[in-house]
Specification:
There is one protein chain. About 25% of the residues lie in helices and about 35% in strands. By secondary structure, the protein is an alpha+beta fold. A hairpin with a 5-residue loop joins strand 16 and strand 17. The longest helix is centred in the middle third of the chain and has 17 residues. The termini are far apart.
Length: about 650
Amino acid sequence: MTNIRSLLIANRGEIACRIMRTARRMGIATVAVHSDADADAPHVRMADRAVRIGGALPAESYLNAAAVIEAVRKAGADAVHPGYGFLSENAAFAEACAAAGLTFVGPPAAAIQAMGDKARAKRLMSEAGVPVVPGYEGEDQSPETLAREAERIGYPVLIKAAAGGGGRGMRRVERAGDFAAALESARREAQNAFGDASVLIEKLITDARHIEIQVFADRHGNTIHLGERDCSAQRRHQKIVEEAPSPFVTPALRLAMGADAVRAAKAVGYEGAGTVEFIVADDGTYHFLEMNTRLQVEHPVTEMVTGFDLVEWQLRVAGGERLPVGQDDVGLTGHAIEARLYAEDPYDGFRPQSGRILRWRPADGDGIRIDSGVAEGGVVTPFYDPMIAKVIAHGADRAEAIARLVAALRATSVVGIATNREFLIDLLASEAFGAGEMTTGLIDRWIAEEAGILDAPRPTALDFALAAVAVTMRDGGSWFRSSGRAHCPITLALGDERRETVVHFERGRLAGVSVGGEEIVVERASLRADRLEFAVDGVTRRVGVLFAGRDVHLDRDGKVLVFHEPDPLVRPPAPKDPRRIVAPVSGVVRAVGVVAGQAVKAGGMVAMVEAMKMENALYAAIDGVVTAIHVAEGAQVAAGQLIAEIEPDHG
């Protein structure tokens, strides 16, 4: 039994909830911390106690180490679990916990420091005999030196934040002409995320696999690995889908990479859970990328194929216990795949979304696990990562795991905010994923080549018909006529598409729907609570329905279509004014690229707004002169807020 009695989780969202589940099972009391934006969040309600630590911005709360330590004191906890992100790889925070007499559920501060500096980590790994990616890790951070080193290494190269990971401060550069702008962007993001703008340059190994090895060590000298995870399905270096075991890794390669991962952990005196990440070429050669000194987002797939609870192991090892198994006791059973369900719009450049979740109905069933930190009626704010949930499936083999995961995504209903659910389904159903041929650059190449996986869903005439039927049946409908016949005209719009529909009833029964003159024979339909059941061509189907004002949300076949019934008394919105630059999302202004009185060209960058770990560049739509700047760098802005004004150049 671990000696930890009360555990404060210095995090939020799904990882805080996931840690609490294990702690509760182990009889450990839990303490949540929260920002003002998370006062009523699920992780706060789930904990035994909760402490406010500051404002909505991460720097004011979850990144405020002093506030977290003070919360531990107030709550009387004796241990801290940092989760992932925020302070999880902050050596100073680990030291502060130790100085306060607390158990830090993670590696020693020295190991965090050694691996947190990516340049130093590469040197340590090279000395330990672990193969590393060719690159530059020097102290000279002048733009001229970095550009010269990139030329020496040879394009394409990867700029990486030296002090962090998770894709932050990382930029792919294909040619010398793009280097300066990419370096500036990477440094800005690295400074904002990690408080350190220094970078390193690496040779970009294209069409490679991203394979990571889960390692675990205790303070008694025992270090083992738990096999690999394949994280090659990425977009802009952000992982989307992860699986274990990898369809690419052979038993011999697993043995070699596992041995190198254990060697890497021992080289820095590691304790607890960690992940050694490798980039693997098509011929099976591999190089060390970095070590994440924390629990990974994708740890559930390892748990599902090994049967081990990694959080329980973390707590026991932090309490001084030995690892419960040796290397020979580790086996992999079946296959597991995890998909990250994000509040983002894949059909609008994966732009993060914020807003209220009107419906949240996660799937369940054999082999399905949902790790989430949201609740129906809750709000996804612009201040943190936009992940809603992790949907994980386990099967006897890879094909079964894929099939179960696709079915779970289709059955998981999230309405009220745009998500990447349909994109995930299309990705999992793609030929490349099914064949186990995903590489780190493939999704970005699909996007660049407009390969079809990101084609926005187009509503069919049947979709419009079902939305119209739902409207007429809402609250019992108003279609009764003494003649026995009723014709209900309804105008519906979805984006720029607008259709005139007419729902026909005969003697109280649905007879059909006209959509823009096209006749849809809907043989019968009934609306019960939030589900519309209908029959077409003798086949009965069901779709989810949710009404919000004059909007009708139709959840069908893994996609949500939001139809709007225009109010004839309300004027349509005015077209966008090219003279006004407005924030597309709520976020923080990270850069203002112009000053009042400056001439700009159409396509020139005016400002940069960061929201949910993504930079959104705002460009001038016209040639002209900047007449006013309404924000400053570091300012918090709301979606639609005026950023700058431009007077057109009439010359």
